[in-house]
Amino acid sequence: MLSGEDYNASDPELLAERQRCRELWQRYNMESSDAERSKILEEILGYPTDASIQAPFFCDYGYNIKLGKNVYFNVNCVVLDVTPVVIGDGVLIGPAVQIYAATHSAIAKERRSGLEFGAPVTIGEEAWIGGGSIICPGVTIGARTTIGAGSVVTKDIPPDVIAAGNPCRVIRELEAE
């Protein structure tokens, strides 16, 4: 699964890991104490973080998400982290953003087999992902790039640009810092 090969999402070990993650997110999403939420978040991710993740938030496993410093997720975000999802320092993620590292075959016969696969997603430092955007499997978004609200990112987006649309495309280049 982590290497992007086909896997069976109904495997008992994977089912148990997703259930564990759901239970932890339920606790996180209901918790009002920042200190307790930090403890739960560390248990989900497997490492301490200073990320600010607004509830509700949902993911499949948690331990495949690698967050840089000062990452912010607004409400109602979903991360399907069957392969690594790497988010750089200072990234801002708007409400209802969905990040998909998981996918299925486009061929119905293959989907019926129950096998799935995934491809890593990377978001570079100081990027801003506008609300309601969808980041598809295998996509890299460059550092300091802004993705406009409601975009569907199906291909890599370079650093230092503003990109938007469905499919997402570069609208304007920014001065590199």
Notes on the protein architecture:
- This protein has 177 residues and is of the alpha/beta class.
- It has one domain (7-173): UDP N-Acetylglucosamine Acyltransferase, domain 1 (3 Solenoid).
- The chain has helices at residues 12-30, 34-45, 108-112, and strands at 7-8, 52-53, 57-59, 65-67, 72-73, 77-80, 85-87, 92-93, 98-100, 102-103, 115-118, 121-123, 128-129, 134-135, 140-141, 146-147, 152-153, 161-165, 168-173.
- It has a seven-stranded mixed sheet, with no helix packed on it. It has a five-stranded parallel sheet with strand order 3-6-9-14-17.
- The radius of gyration is 16 Å and the shape is globular.
What does the secondary structure layout of this molecule look like, with pairings?
Blueprint: E1 7-8, H1 12-30, H2 34-45, E2 52-53, E3 57-59, E4 65-67, E5 72-73, E6 77-80, E7 85-87, E8 92-93, E9 98-100, E10 102-103, H3 108-112, E11 115-118, E12 121-123, E13 128-129, E14 134-135, E15 140-141, E16 146-147, E17 152-153, E18 161-165, E19 168-173
Parallel strand pairs: 2-5, 3-6, 4-7, 5-8, 6-9, 7-12, 8-13, 9-14, 12-15, 13-16, 14-17, 16-18
Antiparallel strand pairs: 1-11, 10-11, 18-19
Helix pairs in contact: 1-2
Indicate the percent of residues in helices.
10-25%
CATH level 1 class label: Mainly Beta
Using only CA atoms, what is the Rg?
Answer: 16 Å
Kindly state the mean pLDDT as a whole number?
94
Please give the order of strands in the largest beta sheet: 2-5-8-13-16-18-19
What is the general shape? globular
- Give the SSE string: EHHEEEEEEEEEHEEEEEEEEE
CATH architecture: 3 Solenoid
Q: Would you tell me the structural class of the helices and strands?
A: alpha/beta
Give the helix tally. 3
Count of individual domains: 1
